[in-house]
Design a protein that fits this description.
The complex is a heterodimer of chains A (488) and B (392).
Chain A: H1 37-50, E1 53-56, E2 62-65, H2 104-125, E3 154-159, H3 165-179, E4 183-187, E5 193-194, E6 200-201, H4 204-213, E7 215-218, H5 232-240, E8 242-250, E9 263-269, E10 273-283, E11 286-294, H6 295-311, E12 316-321, H7 327-342, E13 348-353, H8 354-363, E14 370-373, H9 375-389, E15 396-401, E16 406-410, H10 427-440, H11 443-459, H12 473-487
Parallel strand pairs in A: 3-4, 3-7, 7-16, 9-14, 12-13, 12-14
Antiparallel strand pairs in A: 1-2, 5-6, 8-9, 8-15, 10-11, 15-16
Helix pairs in contact in A: 3-10, 3-12, 6-7, 8-9, 10-11, 11-12
Chain B: H1 8-24, E1 57-62, H2 68-82, E2 86-90, H3 101-113, E3 115-118, H4 134-141, E4 146-152, E5 165-171, E6 175-185, E7 188-196, H5 197-214, E8 218-223, H6 231-243, E9 250-255, H7 256-265, E10 272-275, H8 277-291, E11 298-302, E12 307-311, H9 329-341, H10 345-362, H11 375-383
Parallel strand pairs in B: 1-2, 1-3, 3-12, 5-10, 8-9, 8-10
Antiparallel strand pairs in B: 4-5, 4-11, 6-7, 11-12
Chain lengths: 488, 392
């Protein structure tokens, strides 16, 4: 009997340990019904008691090798793959060939041949008769994992972008180098290309890099007018199903605005709502625009918001809505938030009308903590909060996708008028990169870089033009690098 | 040479003089000096109803929920004190009842009287969609298409930004507030946002006309046409069309998220803003917060035939109801707008002057402005203001 024990990437966050145990397996274990991590670990304990060889590969797999005499199990005996495994969107399978009509005898011989080939392939690949069990992805990766499982370099897809994008990306790379962060950058360009079906898509090498590394850092992208294709941001969003936009707004000490002590996070649903793009001209002069709210998307964003609050020690989550007017749509959103709140009793849940939030935000922003809302309200409120702390030039932003993909970006424009003149302010991209480090679990590097950045801004000696100084981008970057190295 | 009789010349002179008099002074009580006290006499599309029964006007009063009833009482008290020739017809609307009879009675009363002063009616959003928002119902039935809110920084109120003077004109009947929603597939809800050419042209025309009458130089249209290309694109197109007829007024447009960002960093750049319904809600609340809060700004809803006045941010104030801590300024300034609409400018200016002197000079503030005063103290202080007399 052979089974394969495979840890999915999410569960492999714990440091890889090589366990060597001797295990004797006689009877096949009953198929797993509950695919949670704890049940799999309990099962491992059972196996440990009987004696088996357990080898953990750094990153992905723990393969368990029982003694040689056991045979491979039938496919029907293996536990079914859990639903939360990496989606088939990642694995690009070639389309299977259509059925070919051969005689029955020929078909039987063909089947036996394939079975033999498969068996020999399996024997060749793994150590003789390994025991394999698939561990489920039911353990959802929290927004901030406690420690990266790999001590080595993490690959991050870097998309420099247009305009000032390349300069600020270079600045961020320099600062990361000075901080000796274990990040390996993979630069890719995204431009819209027409795919085989006539649909616009991002270049396949960028997609493949992103799927592999799962983490991306993106500079500002140009939004084309009358180019025939949708904006790149929209394409990226659709490709990777980036459903949550997270924008932490924290007042920067040293960059004075009328609002001090702002410390809130806006979590905005990024895929549906008012921005569904469905519009019709009913009759000449009457236009209808459809706002779409679905149960799944609302539940997903609410769950993300509460997970984020829990993982980042935030005390309350506020749902922003206009259910007095849009009873069914915002009512559905609100209901889903309430349902999810039941499972997170440690986080306080409140609901507030959009106009009340706007009114109170402008008078006293300290009363808010985490805000979760549909697309349009999120757009307006996140920009309002960015304005409170000093504008888009200093605001980080992250987009979380469905398959563990996360793209962190700077939300300001490409600023073509200062492109190439070494005048750009890399703070937004840098703070987004710090957010990315925290997401990956590299908190100490993140804190170091953030402290250096804030110290530079507080000092006011070397500031770029938009922050009130007249230094160049390279000087600002060099100052931060120096501080990072001093902090070591 | 035209030969005239000896008595014709003085007769002609008197006719000419009285006709000039009646043209220049619509209100016989209006002395010239009080005309320029506060530039807030709003012009609406319609004429106020003629005063009946000895020069007294009848106005519908809808107290509403929360702090509404107590503020309505203060308004009546103040009007009685100032001997304002206005009688209130009180129509109570119970927002907890499922039937719409109450609100229909109120609408009937407003149709009868032509003007109304209204408190906010609470909408319980946990009720099913068959229960429509009473406020929205009133606005759409009476076709009060323009909501006007004038946000000005007051000298005595401490805010983070100074010298704000923004007039917000918001389309009040269509847009996202059409209340057209359906669930085709379980778990998927669609909400329709309707933008029409006629209503967009109407609101743009109102905005530019008001800007011209008030001597404003710039109108900014707030939209999201980069995403909602057809809907907000139509709105923007209508605004541009109307702007071409007003060459002395600068017209520009701004996307709503950029607008909110600019409002919290540099609100002094805005003059008149015109926008569809939902963005109007957001922007008016942001501006109200910038000038000092929901207790300071009055709002007016104008239609072709009717006008309804209320607080700018339309808050029920449930949490502070009956605690005597609400700020009466917004409701009292709304009643001044009402008097301006009825062409009783002398009374309007007198009351406005008294309110503003209480807020700015005496600095008697309620809790929302950081003070210790109660509602009744503020109202008493208004009534005790020096030189609080109607000058005829």
């Amino acid at each position: 009997m052979r089974r394969r024990l495979e840890l999915s990437q999410s569960a492999a966050d714990t440091p890889a340990v090589v366990l060597v145990l001797v295990l004797l397996v006689n009877d096949p274990l009953p198929p797993l019904k509950d695919t949670s991590l704890s049940s799999h670990l309990k099962r491992l304990q059972l196996l440990v008691g009987e004696g088996c060889l357990l080898v953990a590969h750094p990153g992905r797999r723990i393969s368990v090798s029982p003694p040689h005499h056991t045979a491979a199990p039938r496919r029907s005996e293996l536990p079914s793959r859990p639903a939360a495994a990496p989606s088939t969107a990642e694995t690009s399978r070639a389309p299977e060939p259509g059925p070919v009509r051969f005689s029955r005898r020929r078909r039987r011989r063909r089947r036996r041949r394939m079975k033999r080939r498969r068996r020999s392939r399996r024997r060749r690949r793994e150590p003789a008769c390994c025991l394999q069990l698939t561990l489920g992805g039911a353990v959802r990766r929290p927004a901030l994992s406690s420690a990266s499982f790999s001590r080595g370099m993490q690959t991050v897809t870097l998309i420099p972008g247009d305009g000032i994008g390349p300069e600020i990306s270079t600045a961020v790379m320099k600062i990361f180098e000075a901080a000796k962060a274990p990040i390996r950058w993979e630069e890719r360009n995204v431009t819209a290309i027409k795919g085989p079906g006539g649909r616009w898509m991002i270049p396949p090498d960028a997609k493949e890099s992103m799927d592999r590394s799962k983490i991306g850092l993106k500079g500002p992208l140009k939004t084309p007018i009358a180019a025939g294709h949708p904006s790149m941001n929209l394409l990226l969003r659709k490709t990777f199903d980036l459903y949550a936009n997270v924008r932490p707004c924290v007042s920067i000490e040293g960059y004075k605005t009328p609002y001090t002590d702002v410390n809130l996070v806006t979590i905005r649903e990024n895929t549906e709502g008012e921005y569904s793009g469905i519009e019709h001209v009913i009759v000449d002069g009457v236009v209808q625009s459809i706002k779409l709210i679905t149960e799944n998307a609302s539940r997903r964003i609410a769950e993300y918001a509460f997970e984020y609050a829990r993982n980042n020690q935030r005390s309350s989550v506020t749902a922003v809505h206009k259910a007095n007017i849009m009873r069914m749509s915002d009512g559905l959103f609100l209901r889903k938030c309430r349902e999810v709140a039941e499972n997170y009793k440690d986080v306080k849940f409140t609901e507030m009308y959009l106009d009340t939030v706007c009114l109170n935000m402008v008078q006293d922003p300290t009363q808010f903590d985490v805000l979760v809302m549909p697309n349009l309200y999120g757009d307006i409120l996140s920009d309002l909060c960015a304005g409170l702390i000093g504008g888009l030039g200093v605001t980080p932003s992250g987009n979380i996708g469905a398959n563990g993909v996360a793209i962190f970006e700077s939300v300001h424009g490409t600023a073509p008028d200062i492109a190439g003149l070494d005048l750009a302010n890399p703070t937004a991209l840098l703070l987004s990169a710090v957010m990315m480090l925290r997401h990956m679990g590299l908190h100490d590097y993140g804190n170091k870089i953030q402290t250096a950045c804030f110290d530079t801004i507080r000092d006011k000696k070397v500031l770029t033009k938009d922050l009130g100084g007249n230094s160049k981008c390279s000087e600002f970057t060099a100052d931060i690098c120096r501080r990072v190295q001093d902090l070591d | 040479k035209i030969k005239m009789c000896s008595f014709v010349r003085p007769f002609l002179l008197s006719v000419i003089l009285t006709s000039m008099f009646s043209l220049l002074r619509s209100d016989p009580l209006l002395p010239p000096s009080t005309q320029q006290v506060h530039r807030d006499s709003l012009v609406c599309a319609s004429q106020p109803p003629p005063a009946q029964y000895g020069g007294r006007h009848t106005v519908t009063l809808i107290p509403g929920d929360g702090i509404g009833p107590e503020l309505a009482n203060h308004v009546r008290e103040l009007f009685r004190f100032c001997c304002v020739p206005v009688d209130f017809e009180v129509v109570n609307v119970d927002s907890t009842m499922a039937s719409e009879d109450d609100i229909n009675n109120a609408i009937m009363a407003i149709r009868r009287n032509g003007v109304a002063l209204k408190g906010n009616l609470e909408t319980n959003h946990n009720l099913p969609p068959s229960y429509k928002s009473r406020n929205n119902l009133l606005r759409t039935t009476l076709d009060l298409y323009a909501n006007v809110m004038h946000c000005q920084s007051l000298p005595g109120v401490r805010t983070r930004h100074r010298n704000i003077d923004i007039m917000i004109i918001r389309e009040n009947t269509e847009g996202e507030y059409s209340s057209l929603e359906h669930e085709n597939v379980p778990g998927v809800v669609e909400c329709l946002k309707i933008i029409t050419r006629t209503k967009s042209l109407r609101i743009a025309d109102y905005a530019f006309r008001t800007a011209r009458e008030k001597g404003r130089t710039r109108v900014t249209a707030v939209h999201k046409a980069n995403i909602m290309k057809l809907g907000d694109g139509l709105f923007l197109e209508c605004c541009k069309e109307v702007a071409s007829g007003y060459p002395e007024i600068t017209f520009d447009s701004m996307i709503v998220d950029n607008t909110t960002m600019q409002l919290v960093s540099r609100p002094q750049q805005f003059d008149v803003m015109v926008m569809p319904n939902l963005y109007g809600n957001v922007v008016s609340n942001v501006c109200a917060g910038l000038v000092g809060g929901p207790g300071l700004v009055p709002g007016a809803n104008y239609g072709e035939d009717y006008a309804v006045f209320e607080t700018g941010t339309r808050n029920t104030g449930k949490s502070i109801a009956n605690t005597n801590t609400a700020n009466p300024t917004a409701m009292l300034l709304a009643s001044c707008l009402l008097l301006d609409h009825l062409k009783l400018h002398a009374y309007a200016n007198m009351i406005r002057r008294a309110i503003l002197s209480t807020v700015t000079e005496t600095r008697l503030h309620t809790a929302d402005l950081g003070g210790q005063g109660s509602t009744s103290e503020v109202v008493q202080s208004i009534m005790k203001v020096k030189n609080f007399t109607v000058t005829f």
